[in-house]
Amino acid sequence: MAFKGSAESSSSELNFIGKGTVVNGELHTESSLRVDGTVKGKIICKSTLTIGETGKIEGEIQATNAIVGGKIEGKIFVNQKLVLESKSSLIGELKASKLIIDEGAVFQGSSDMGVGQTSGSVPSKNQPLKSNEQK
Q1: Total number of domains in the chain
Q2: Are 40 and 24 in contact (CB under 8 A)?
């Protein structure tokens, strides 16, 4: 993986988790991340997260943008746009401002789009997913 100390230069960096690699725990990155292996835990990506066809995430994802070609089991929170490609599978909960689901993609769970989404911040795990709840 590539690491940079300053946030200014890290925006062009790409972190990569290759096929056959398994990561257990929590990942934080200011730059883009591509996952072709397996991550069990939490991913916080301040840029674009790409999950390749062989990629699998079990846990929670927070990202600015996400392109999913593989499998997710858990929760995904996306500030801007989430794309589920034709061979992707998402089992769980999602919150995104914009959602694109290609023909052939599998989505099973609950979704919350647009309403109540705050620009520039990914919701924390303590925030409710449903924005229509009354207090």
Answers
A1: 1
A2: yes
